[in-house]
Amino acid sequence: MQTETFTDRVACPKCSQESDVQVMPFIDGSDPDQREKFFTGAVNVFRCDSCGTEMMLSSLFEYVDPNLGIALASMPEAAIGHDEFLADFADDGSLLYSDRSDDDLALLPLFLRHRRIVFSYAELLLQAEARILRLVTKADEKQGISLPWKAGDTVSQTVTHTCIACKQPFEQEMIVAADVSAKPELREQLAEQRFNAAPCPHCGQVQLIDSAPILWHDPEHFFSVVYYPFGPDRAAQDDLLDAAGMIEYSRIDESRHSGFAGTLAAFTPHEFYHRFLFHEGLIKRQAAQGVTKPRNVEPLSEDEARKALEERFGPGGKQGPLVN
Fold first, then answer.
1. Which domain holds residue 169?
2. Looking at CB atoms within 10 Å, which of 64, 192, 202, 237 has the fewest?
């Protein structure tokens, strides 16, 4: 599949010098050339010609691989605060596709209908890499992981954390699992970025303590996520994800009792925090406007979809042929 690549002028956030950057808004993961450019940083990465600063662009990008059933889209974090953006989602965070009829939505493959929305290009790249590594990692290389959980409470452990500023290690207690419905005060802590925050005893820098995975479970606000700070390679070894890119159900202790189906994975603190803000925005909308339910449209089978497309676009079809 061909996709358009264009050149844009971007101002450096450090020195304000403008430089050209190659932008590819849609990446077809089934195309080897596009996939290589995506994973090697040949597109969508800004490099300042003046001071050498590098950053990933913040805009709307999509990564789709129909062969592997992967559909991801990154949105700028600023979109979270806009009502028109939230209007595209049900209260549970699922896409509504308000611009599509039920007949059109029934034709959309499930992996596209349930595309994962993330809030940075860095997270988009890590999510795509994790999905691919899950498939190529051999069974004998997977060790599995057990994520602690205690219903109605939090689980804490002491970790050795390396300071983001002075790089000195120190020991610190952190919450590794939280039943947020039973501990609603944690929402305010995360909103104010105080959750699992502590100062370095060497230099005083306050920072997120994230030297272990964090399970945040908040079914009342439709938000269950594992912030996994160790990257896609380790995630594949830990057999963290299922075929849909969600947390593998069996990885969570006692998950069969706790309603963890559809638990998301986040690989960056940025995504953990902004996904939380996204769901809090949906809850505030619900309080102000009432319930917005997800759309329940049964997908067509392959044969049914083929027949529907022929009736619509075939010779003599309702909308005429796709190609004259």
1. 143-289
2. 192
